[in-house]
Amino acid sequence: MGPGWRGAAGTLRIRTQGSWYLWVMLLLLCGFWKARSQTDDGKSVYFWETGPWGRCMGSDCGPGGSQSRAVWCAHVEGWTTLHTNCDQSQRPSNQRNCFRVCDWHKELYDWRLGAWNACIPISAWTMGAPRLLACSGGEDGIQTREVSCVLKSDGSPAEDAICKYFEPQPRLEQACLIPCPQDCVVSEYSPWTSCSKTCGTGLRNRVRSVLVPPVFEGAVCPNLTEFQSCKPGPCTGPEGLYSLRVGPWTPCAVIETRTTRQAKRRKGKGQGLRENPVKDPETRELIQKKRTRNRLNRQESPFWDIQVGYQTRDVTCIHRNGSATGHSLCLLRDLPMTVQSCVLPKDCQVAEWTEWGPCSKTCTDPESPGGNRTRSRQVLQFPVGEGSGCPPLEESVSCEPPGEGVLPCASYTWRTAEWSDCRVDSLLSQQDRRRSNLTGLCGGGLQTREVYCVQANAELLTYLGDLREKDKAGQTQRPQKPSAPPLLSVTFQITASRPVENKLCRGPIPNRSQLCQIPCPIDCEVSPWGAWGPCTFENCDDQAGKKGFKLRKRRISNEPTGGPGNCPHLVEAVPCDEPSCYAWRLVGLDQCVPDGGKTCGPGAQLARARCVRSNGEEVSRNLCSSFPAPAPARCGVPCSRDCVLSDWTPWSTCSQTCSSKTVEGKQMRTRSVLAYNAGEVTAMVVAWITGMEGLSQVPKFADHFGGALCPNSSALQEVQDCNEHACTVYHWQTGPWGPCSEDPSVSSLNASTGVHPGAGGQGSCSTGMQTRKVICVRVNVGQVPPKKCPDGPRPNTVRSCQLPCKKDCIVTPFSDWTACPVTCDAAGNIVKRRQARKRLIIQLPSNGGLECPEVLEEERDCEVSQICPGFRWKSHKWRKCQLVPWFLRQRSAGAQESCGPGLQTRAVSCRQMDGTQADIGECLKFAKAMPSITQPCQLPCQDDCQLTNWSKFSSCTADCVGVRTRKRALIGRSKKKDKCKNTQMYPLSETQYCPCDKYNAQPVGNWSDCILPEGDRAESVLGTKVQGDIKECGQGYRYQAMVCYDQDNRLVETSRCNSHGYIEEACIIPCPSDCKLSEWSNWSRCSKSCGSGVKVRSKWLREKPYNGGRPCPKLDHINQAQVYEVVPCQSDCNQYVWVAEPWSVWKVSNVDLKENCGEGVQTRKVRCMLNTIDGPSDAVEDYLCDPEEMPLGARESRLPCPEACVLNDWGPWSRCSLPCTTTTSRARTAYALRAPSAGRECPDTTDNEPCSLNRNCFDYFYNITDWSTCQLSPNAVCGSGIKTRMLDCVRSDGKSVDLKFCKELNLEKKWQMIVSCVVECPVNCRLSDWSSWSECSQTCGLEGKMRRRRSVVQASQGDGRPCPAQREQWKPCPVRPCYRWQYSPWSECRVESVVCGHGTRYRNLSCSVSDGSADGEASLVDEELCSSLEVAIGGDKRIRLKEACTLPCPGECYLMEWSDWSSCVSICVKRAGVDFGSVRVRSRAVLAQEPENLQLCPDQAWESEPCTGERNRRSGGCYDYKWFSGGNSAPPSVWCQRSDGLNVTGGCPAMNPPLDNSSCDPPCLMPKSFCSEAGTCMCEEGFTEALSPSGGLDLCAPIPVLEIPTAGDKKGDVKTSRAVNPTLPGANMPGRSGRTWYLQPYGPDGKLKMWVYGVAAGALVLLVFVVSMIYLACSSSCAEARESGANGTAVWAGQNAHEMIYTCPDCQRLAQADSG
Description:
Low-confidence stretches: 1-24, 26-43, 268-276, 475-494, 695-704, 755-761, 1601-1638, 1680-1716
Strand order of the largest sheet: 19-18-16-90-93
Radius of gyration: 64 Å
Helix content: under 10%
Largest sheet: 5 strands, mixed
């Protein structure tokens, strides 16, 4: 616990090692001393510690609470001890009073936030923190503020804990940025001025201006002026040393005696009038009017207290050195006037503020903006002369309505009308054929409604307002139960609200269109006709005298919309004879029993019959007792030698459905011979033998060899009549049901009702009845009497129905009348306008309800005053010219008592446009600038010439023809003075040529959008709805503005060029063309002939869309169709059946003579036929039948021998039991038709075979097809549809079979066969109507545009037509010239015929015209063209046409005029992204003329102001400053340049500017060179130095690029590498980093470096070594040649064993010498 130093950001940092040891020793000593002092006192090692205060507790809110905390005794080492060890007198309190905070205190207390203090650098907060040496962007700092909890009512301080209870304490400090100092930045110097003297010694000046002021304690601006002495030459004569200087005018002073003198004069006049009263009324009235006019002229109004005074000025003689001398030294000229009249300045005086007016907002609504209340004050004294202007006369503050019981503000909401009828036609494409006939369309459609804005709480406000009025009126005599407000009352009836302007509703607009559904009618589907029933009575209970009918019926297979009454007739009848209600029905025949108990031969079959009713129902046999029962049928059992016939086939289908005199129905059955009798066999055999032997006659055999003969071929076929009833078919035919009408027997009334648009469907009010016509119709004939048809199946002609409720038309109340804006024409007359109101239909009538009113819109003339509103100034007559009193002027040279310059005043009043008096304040707010109330005047002296004012120029007869004149005349005595008659000095007329006004029209700007003719409607302000198909294409017009110029190329009104302002050109807006598809193809055949398949139809692309038409559906690449539909189909497996005719007669191919039998062949014809309910009918192609089930067309068999057993054909195979296994089998049976003879047996009558899967035994299962495409009604375009799929019974071998096979197995069917689906509707995009054309974007000029817009009311959906991209159109505004007031440039400073001093400069206010463009030049025009404009320049109404100026005297040092304002510059810190706004600056530099007067020069001046206006703020840039140097100048220079390219002084960093090349000798003049810090010339990066022999830089050559092929690329892929900074320079090496690795043979001193000598020595040694080696090699070769006796020829063997022979000449000479 030793003492420590801690700053704001951590402990103190000790920087030196010695000081660190010192601190450690000091801390140890302090700790030792403290420990010793504690051990000296026994109790000093213990101290009290406290915990934090607990929560404030108490029963009441406020200061009555209490809080506690823990208090304990602790040792200095940190452990807790007994309380007795601590000093009890110093024990802290453990309880205190506190403020208990409750929730409602939140409204009483709040945090008070103080202002942020100055930003203090962090270095000042942190002890020992280093300060930044260089500022880059700014320095981080911290700023603090005071935060305290206060009572809201009076601001008294409170405990912070109260405010902390509700919200955390706001932060006390925050980070801030202290920007770096930014020095003053000035421009470059201007060129030198000419010498101030023409001879002798003078000065030349050059100046610069301030561009950026110094900010953030930056360096002050340098001198803006630079002087340079000049000597044009010696003076030949004496110089002018003295000048006459005029001083400034003194403040205006009033003459004291003047007021007294005027008062006496008025008093005397008043007494005289009173002494001599005028009795004549007319004269008295004239005198009174004159007094009033004089009073106005005297300006005795309290607003105008104008006093004319005087002011003087001094005229002194000044030496060139600035000292004053006597007037005698100056060349005396006409001395300027030293006294003049003036207006005594008076400041504007205003009255006290009035009380605050009521709040403009009179209702409560937290969401709406607050209101305003204003107060005003009156002007007591207008400013006169140079007096200060008036302060604002009106001020306003925001407010909320005070007090309780304030009504809520009106709220607005959207309401909707009733949905229109659902329409499908808007969804049809262009090519849809149904567009020509819209009847019967159904499915998805579109319905629209109108949306309008209403006041949501109008009824509530009315209710509350009435309640308040009753309270004010005191109508509370007895307590009454208050009624519920309308919006809260359950029984309140909703009525249509008054529509208001749409702009009052702010929420999202409800949908104005929606998809709807028209239920498609379901057509009735019936089954095929059943078979004709028996002839029966209509009523079996009443059979007397009733005729009979045969009936056939069909059933409804698909219930239609509207019930079965819309189906065709279901019963047909034909009359018949001998009707009966009961009959015997043959069930079957028993086995044939031979007669007499024999085993074979003729016999009988007993018939099995049942008694049935006419409808087929079995009844008691007693009911058929009156009819004979079916008799036994004769039959025979063949004996062993008899002929055997097969059983009869079933009767064929009847050939006709009915019978007539010419047509009868027939049906047939057949049988065949199975075995011949014995006799026939013998005869056949005999015939065969006779033929084979060639005998001439047949041999005869005994007859006893034969049996019963076979019948001839005609007996094998039977034909019977069928459908014997006549072809006269009758049925009941029904007409459509009539409308539902009221049933007179029902007493309930169908009352009218008004159904709110939001309600759902239509309810039913009562029960009515419908009737229809029922007639009896004979087929193919027409209507017949009703008795021809049976009464039993006659349909009903009357049925009950539900009457829909009547719906009355509901309309809204009329809206408020539209506003009547008061506008005036150029002549000041009221422009008459009309106002309108309208009401909307929100429910159309139906079912006989009240019709809608015819009048939905009303118009009327606006009721406005006949006077244009507005105020204007009226100026009164100028008063008499007032001169300065003579006693003040008499000392002036040339002054006369009764003439000279003076001042005159006039009164100004405020008037309405009709001339009536108005308050002055109205003109101050609404009128133009107040006219001048003073003007200088001149009282002519006796010698002066007086002339009238110029008249107006005479009119010209035509442009460019003749002249026009204006005149004036002399007045009074001037007519007699000769000098005044001098027309050269005083011309009395002026002539000028008539203006030659020639105008030229030409187009300007771009063409507008193509705009359709204005037949389209403008968007309504009351209600929005979806319109029908608005014409969006076709021929329109586009516009180009016309501009008109006069002969001086000045813009004038287009009417001067006889143009309405536009060029029109026809244009075409191409109409959208939808995607065009082909019609639906025919349905393909079902993909399966048995079971479930699919059938497809398609549409193909015929034409692609263009111009925004409906897009094409996405191409189906599988089917290669644009649109296709797939539906499942079911093919009845029994639809086509094989029909086999009976077997033919046996064709015996071999005869067994012994057995009288043989082998033979039978054939039959098999055909595929269409199966109907009546049986097979028509033959079809064989491929439609199942080939696997095709019966045999031929068979080979053995013809049974006589006495052999004859069996019938095999019966069908029995079904194998499931599941199929090899242990099971199936069987088929036959029975004996002819018993064999004794000793013979019949073959087996049973045939068995094992069951084998997929051969004769099959499993069956259901197969579900895929879903079809969504199917719609043929008359539907989209909407709700169905998707279907089908069940298919599939055999285990994959073949589809009839569903009966699966049904017989009772297989589970768990699939849903039909589901609902939706086909997305192709909704075209719908846009709102075009809005009205906007106001022109510019009031004048060439670039004005008017625009109109439309919005998407209904977005496109599905394949609907997309929204067009053009939602906005523009067209140019008529070009109007831009007139404005502008100042002319200031004139030179004028000092009345005196050389220097205080003078005045002037400028004019003129009217100019321009085209409004930024670079357009303005031209001066007549001031009358600007007469309608307010006299203001740039929004400033204070017009200054003259101002004081100073004309410097010769030799005087003076300030120049203010420079132009610089461009706006942003004061920003880029690193921190902080912008301190933008400023602009101007400055005044000093100009000196005499070197001796430089010490008398005034200080230069500059001033800055923030940039105002959006344009100026945007133009303010945040610039950078960089040093630049030039190496080619002589001498080279260094300058600072701003990032916009402007050369400046100041702004660039003071650290490390580029060195001047002048430090290198010689200077670095080579391109790409610079002067290094060591004073040597070096090359820039990327270039190497090439030195001259003297060691100087010769040129900078680019460094070659080193190309290194990569090892992995055999093609020599080149990688470029530039050697940059391969090594770092040493500390002592001069030059830049990365340049020292190049070989530089010369040092900085220009001498060779040591390594150059080393390299040269090494090269010499290498050269000596090479020469020595060559010599030794040659010597050894010659020696070898001598030893071998060679002739000096050396032979080398090359790589390819080629020899290269070399002859050494020396060796040859040496060899010759040796040989000699």
